[in-house]
Amino acid sequence: MIPTIGVLALQGDVREHVHALEAGGARAVGVRRPAELAAVDGLVLPGGESTTIDKLLRIFELRDLVRERIADGMPVYGSCAGMILLADRVLGGTSDQETLGGLDVTVRRNAFGRQVDSFETTLDVRGVDGGPVPATFIRAPWIEEAGADVEVLAAIPDDAPGAAAGRIVAVRQGALLATSFHPEITGDSRVHELFVTMVKE
Ligand SMILES: NC(=O)CC[C@H](N)C(=O)O
């Protein structure tokens, strides 16, 4: 069965996720309205600006509905800003910033520095076969603390320079998947394949 996976289409790099999901074996649709959310088997929260997406979720009256679906066990994958939206706790957020929550982690926004500190690397990701995954970090968060039920899928190598060494950058907790980085812009769809598999389960 080919699952239908939504990409929250309020702000951020929606199209790239749609393409990566299709390459990963799903039918992908933009989600902007409650009826569209109701029709999907899983949801991607794209990269973008978490504060803006948070505000738009409320304006479009999707926030409570997405939270309900998360509580019901809908698989959700958040990349970058999407990871922030899934986190239960945020450091470095704006004073009125809220998240959807569900993932028992503390994230730090813009942890790697500013736009100019964006970078590309490759990372081993647990659950993804076939060698390291290209990973693009754009004003990315990292996970500062993860609860006991959170499975760490990838981290910055311990011998990396500076404060980034050893930081957690990909996690899974039940039906929730999150990465600090943007696999959707690399042309490598293996992380999306992992998510499609989670949705099929
Ligand atoms: N590339 C991204 O998604 C950046 C995330 C952004 N810095 C935020 O806090 O929402």
TrEMBL record:
Matches recorded under Pfam families: SNO (PF01174)
A GO biological process held by the record: L-glutamine catabolic process
Enzyme Commission number(s) from the entry: 4.3.3.6, 3.5.1.2
MF annotations from Gene Ontology: glutaminase activity; pyridoxal 5'-phosphate synthase (glutamine hydrolysing) activity
Active site, per annotation: C80 (nucleophile), H182 (charge relay system), E184 (charge relay system)
PROSITE patterns per UniProt: GATASE_TYPE_1, PDXT_SNO_1, PDXT_SNO_2
Reactions catalysed according to its record: aldehydo-D-ribose 5-phosphate + D-glyceraldehyde 3-phosphate + L-glutamine = pyridoxal 5'-phosphate + L-glutamate + phosphate + 3 H2O + H(+); L-glutamine + H2O = L-glutamate + NH4(+)
Domain of life: Bacteria
Residues reported to bind L-glutamine: G48, E49, S50, R109, I138, R139
SUPFAM superfamilies per the UniProt record, alphabetical: Class I glutamine amidotransferase-like
Keywords: Glutamine amidotransferase, Hydrolase, Lyase, Pyridoxal phosphate
Pathway info: Cofactor biosynthesis; pyridoxal 5'-phosphate biosynthesis
GO cellular component: cytosol; glutaminase complex
Keyword Lyase found: yes
Database matches in InterPro entries: Class_I_gatase-like (IPR029062), PdxT/SNO (IPR002161), PdxT/SNO_CS (IPR021196)
CDD domains: GATase1_PB
Record's subunit section: In the presence of PdxS, forms a dodecamer of heterodimers. Only shows activity in the heterodimer.
Protein family (similarity comment): Belongs to the glutaminase PdxT/SNO family.
Function: Catalyzes the hydrolysis of glutamine to glutamate and ammonia as part of the biosynthesis of pyridoxal 5'-phosphate. The resulting ammonia molecule is channeled to the active site of PdxS.
Name the record gives this protein: Pyridoxal 5'-phosphate synthase subunit PdxT
Biological source species: Sediminihabitans luteus
Gene from which this protein is expressed: pdxT
